[in-house]
Amino acid sequence: QLIKMKLAAASVIAFAASTTAYTAPSMTFSLGRKKKTAKKAAPVVTGASPSADAWANAGTSIALPFATAPATLDGTMLGDVGFDPLGFSTVPVGPWFTGNEGRSGQIGNLSWYREAELIHGRIAQIAVVGFIAPGLFGTLPGNDWTGADAYSNLNPLDAFSQVPGLAILQIFLFMSYLEVRRINIIKEEGESYQPGDLRIGQGEGRYNPFGLNYSDEAYAEKQLQELKHCRLGMIGVFGLWAQAQASGVGVTEQIGNALVAPDYYAKAGYFLPEGI
């Protein structure tokens, strides 16, 4: 009896050991949720130029799905959606005031392009306000020296030649001051300079009149929002300029005329039943 019990126990232990050593095949169903990660191909090196290599390793553009984006736009930079139909990112440039060596730049370094994008975008946003605000809130008053109607023109293109020259000089001097200050900051910080940083906003020793104190995630989101507004502002100011050039009147005047009922609408009422 004892021998039988030992044999039974040994058989149970052997069976348990065999089941633990055996791994049953399993089936998983992705239902389209998971995609197989394809192995990344080795970068193609043509040897012709860094620009040629960037286009040889081009990928699909997020902004333009029917086009390709050079390899220099790999999505690591904030706001990068692969929009570079003219290939600017494959021709690196640097600050013009750092000499020939700094002006050449390095392939893959898009900091100076981002600097230009932010600065032009900020100016464009101010210009959009300048196109619209006078028609909504009124213009500056004139006087005997400037003329009573010196600032009354709502079309910015015509107003530019109508305002006094000293007013334009004030704007030019203020913009020159900001530009010299920006260049000095870039020279002072060197390689640690962040594109578009004018030392305004949150941070130690910075001008922060509104007491901004975002977390890292919220701050990155605010940077992306500014970048999108800059891009929208550049497109918007071009549209405002083209429309003012074509129509010869201000933006608010164009919108106001579009909301006025035309004469034929009033005359059509004569042929409609009373009360309609």
Q: Name the beta content range.
A: under 5%
Which of globular, elongated, flat, extended, rod-shaped describes the shape?
globular
Distance N terminus to C terminus? 109 Å
Helix and strand composition category:
mainly alpha
Question: What are the segments in which pLDDT stays under 50 over at least 5 consecutive residues?
Answer: 1-10, 12-38
Helix share, percent = 40-55%
How many distinct beta strands?
2
Topology pattern, helix = H, strand = E: HHEEHHHHHHH
Radius of gyration over C-alpha positions, nearest whole angstrom = 33 Å
Record the strand order, biggest sheet. 1-2
DSSP summary: helix tally: 9
Mean pLDDT: 79
Sheet with the most strands, sense and barrel status: 2 strands, antiparallel
